[in-house]
């Protein structure tokens, strides 16, 4: 090999010392520095497998680059060097534009979730005022939801006067094309049927339907459950409850966990069948469902995301008339991470003949509130969506309300929960009992 190398590269210009090296200590020299930074990411070997899945890749930083940047910041801080310039850039490039979706962990050889690092660092950077606001939000979420709905109504009023485009520009992109109407809490069901506890997540209670004439997501799901012979039970005081995901994503772990604990107690109380067991529990936002499934791990309470319950319990009870389509499908990050995407596809296939699932669109980049606070992340993540959808595709479905807001804004097509499609396809053929 050395003779062949000498013939083709007599001056040793090509990959010198890489494959052939006379230095017996070569394996100990020129090592890439990987200083310890955080236990969460210290196992990262910077392979870059995570990058194609990240919504901020090529906009700001990829997960690999976030880890590299934090390692350098940690190294400088440990060496007593200035970090002011790099830290200021990292606040936006590293933290603000991270969706925290965790898709990076699905490609990582050692399962590193860079979103967990982002949340940790966001939490460390919070001041006293932010912490107090987080605790106030946790203790007064009913008021937060009401104020949010009032803000949406005010936004639509202003939009009707000066135009949607101007409101969008004045809000820095936070006000979206196709912004949903203000939501409302569903009314309790008083009839008979198989008991099922339904907790409408705050996203569907705050952000209502896409139009004034359309039913809200909680009302659609309540109607579907009744149609399938179920008796939906709403947890006591549900409109003041939240799983805490909105705070957890900002690094406010303590008040977020307090909110999850309060919700857990409400679900346990509502689901108690009086015989030592529990009725099934469903939620209608995948991110929130996955969070509460983790919180309830080890308990005997079964909590399902809506599309999982629809697949397991509603499809056998409903007679569906399939629509021709095409309908676009967006599988959000939580569904991908929980590996429940096959059930979602089967529910949609039971409703429509033609499904479009853009292969180059992964995370939508909305990240809860990132689509409002950093709208360029949502725009970048969905830059290939419109071209991937045929002109005949006029609607799409997903399982997270905020994801649907971003998808609607960027594609110009109405995205809704898959519950809407299931309700429409079963509307004329409802079964009266289980």
UniProtKB/TrEMBL annotation:
Q: Does the keyword Cytoplasm apply?
A: no
Return the Pfam families for the record: CCG, Fer4_8
Classification of source organism? unclassified sequences, metagenomes, ecological metagenomes
User: What PROSITE patterns does this protein's entry cite?
Assistant: 4FE4S_FER_1, 4FE4S_FER_2
Q: What is this protein called?
A: sn-glycerol-3-phosphate dehydrogenase subunit C
Q: Whose protein is this, by species? A: mine drainage metagenome
Q: Does the keyword Iron-sulfur apply?
A: yes
Q: What InterPro entries does this protein's entry cite?
A: 4Fe4S_Fe-S-bd, 4Fe4S_Fe_S_CS, Cys_rich_dom, Helical_ferredxn, Vanillyl_alc_oxidase_C-sub2
Q: Which residues form the 4Fe-4S ferredoxin-type domain?
A: 34-64, 89-112
Sorted UniProt keywords: 4Fe-4S, Iron, Iron-sulfur, Metal-binding, Repeat
The UniProt GO MF terms for this protein read:
4 iron, 4 sulfur cluster binding; metal ion binding; oxidoreductase activity
